[in-house]
Amino acid sequence: MATDIDLHLGRRLRRRRRLLGLTQQQLAMQVGIRFQQIQKYECGANRISAARLWQLAEALETPVNYFYDGLAEAMERQETNGANGEMFSRKETLDLIQAYYQLGERPRRRLLDLAKSLHAEGEPSPGV
Fold first, then answer.
1. Alpha helices for 1-128 (secondary structure H)
2. From CA 121, how far away is CA 89, in angstroms rounded?
3. What is the reported pTM?
4. CB–CB of 7/46 below 8 Å?
5. Measured between alpha carbons, how far is 68 from 5 in angstroms, rounded to an integer?
6. Which of 74, 85, 97, 120 has a CA positioned 20 to 30 A from the CA of residue 43?
């Protein structure tokens, strides 16, 4: 299971690789691994060891601390957002939002009113 730190490092790795115009295959060849491993690092599925992070930093011509830039702020945002961050990372939520914005304005309003009324029906009455 990916941790927030693994995800942050993976995003920074992808950003730097793309900035330099490298493919995953090209970067993988430079550090002597398969491109699938780069994919796993970038999505946070696999942790990046200290030695590998050093190799990646050299291949990407950046200091190791580049990968940690913004980590403290990202962790604070994660703590602040809590469940909301988790909710918005679900595929179901993203599919719903995308479908919602494909509707016209009037159907969107009606759908929003329906969702609010369903939520209100599910809440217990005050004093119960």
1. 4-19, 24-31, 35-43, 50-59, 71-81, 83-88, 91-102, 105-122
2. 26
3. 0.61
4. no
5. 9
6. 97
